[in-house]
Batch of 3 targets.
Target 1
Amino acid sequence: MIDTNAYVGAFAFRALRGTAAGDLLRRMDRYRIAQAWVSNPAAITYRNAQPANEELAQAVRGHADRLIPFAVINPGYAGWRDDLARCRTLGMRGLRLYPRWHNYKLTDAACVELAGAGLPVTIPMRVEDRRQQSWLVDVPDVDAREIGELGRAAPGARIVVLNASGGVARAGLPGNCLVEISLLRAELDNEIGQLIEAQGEERVVFGTGQPFHYVEPALLKMELLGLGPAARARIESGNARRLLGVTG
């Protein structure tokens, strides 16, 4: 399995358990997760996100086969192109964007340029439930329709919606947008099943949100879906490998 939604590092507003690379690797071993796409949650609240990317590069050093670093870039920051170039030299394999936290729109020209830079782009719709946020902040969720607008404005981009909400299947996302399952339901109205039916298993990827969230719910959802071996393999790893340009 490949976890497309994981973190290494500390978050400003909440004490997370097991935030070091070693902690994440032990959880991955326990649940038989082969790789994880990771970013540093410190970048969400740093005024300049780049130092958090430098911290991440140091934290995952020596684990490049399992921990795939994703850089947090703020296209509203004046030096973002220099940050992107530096992150490429650090071996970052993708991007993670926080438009609400960093106060820009996904449809801004700089963001469209960034999305078309050739790296997979992951966009969490939320970091935390708005009702659980610190009294110091009030950050709304990203609208899935805005993510769709970015996908259409940058047709060559490869975008993954993380921490997706239940309405994502009805958001009209273009074909270059995939959806991660960690906050979607596989029971009751079966949001994941609806998503697969509407868009196909090629547009769905596995993720947990760890350590913000527990790993077990995502694993249970995969069991509840009752997919055949081929469809399950695509969601658990194949689609993520394709986004990274990995074959075989």
Note: The chain has a mean pLDDT of 94.
Target 2
Amino acid sequence: MKKWLVGIDEAGRGPLAGPVAVGVVLVSKDFDWSQIEGVGDSKQVSAKNRSTIFRCAHNLKKIGQLDWQVAMVSASIIDRRGIVKAINTAMDRCLNSLEKRASKESLETYNPIAWSIKLDGSLKAPDRFIDQETIIKGDSKELVIGLASILAKVTRDKYMERLAQKPEYQIYDLGTHKGYGTKTHRQAIQKYGCTDVHRLTYCKNIVK
């Protein structure tokens, strides 16, 4: 049975606004990583290089060299269910999508037993995936996790930049800080209050 490598990481666990994003990457264990250079921890890769890697991953996906999926869960769900459940929901969506697509290609790829999953930080995949390993700082140690990290971050950043163009959000400058708790973002929340894209549970100590 051919073995497949899966990398999982999230982006946006800590911001005051916007969704959390989870990226999942599926490659064969003999995948040639020279096809996509510069992969690593998304926080250590420049925005320009992240965009280049994202485009490369998109092109490789189109020609069937790898597969990947990013899912996002909104601020309102984070408030209702907590960040851990929100991340797990996004992860499940990604894995289910990849399994469905893989099943159309070959039963060998579809079988979760053939998937060796590498996860960053404290993440855990569903129990049906027997071969899984959680790695502290995995995005800098495993290329497949690093790529998942970059895809999740670029997808989320692009979403926040689009959101920032809407009139009701322009005063928060979401396109610059991507929803994180910068001084200017906190000051804007104090002055204008929260919107429907803010995580109220994260902002409760800012808004009195």
Note: The chain has a mean pLDDT of 93.
Target 3
Amino acid sequence: MDKLAEESDAEITLSPELDFMENKLNQVKNNLEKQKKAAHDAEQRKNDLVVYLAHDIKTPLTSVIGYLSLLDEAPDMPPEQKAKYVGITLEKAYRLEQLINEFFEITRFNLQTIVLNKEQINLLFMLQQMADEFYIQC
């Protein structure tokens, strides 16, 4: 058992009488190593994703801050130019909001364990409800 728990690449060897047990223990050890590597790889992918998202979020945020600073420092700016910069700032803010929503969606997807409980439903009633909800929008 100690050899199973230790972190080494060495195969577990037992006496010839326990050959069947040796094979099973080595399979268990190999499976544990594979699971450990998969967990490490998943953690690395998550860390990479966070770094990329942080960079992607920082880019529009820097633009928003830059344009707002420009607007703040130039109160006598012509209205056309001010409108142009406000429009660009708003566009960048919307992009930032979109990136943050994507980040939360990814996080929510990764953190939740979805358990589906199957049950019978009245399909006709459900379709009528959906039609009623869309009726106001049409």
Note: The chain has one domain: 2-135.
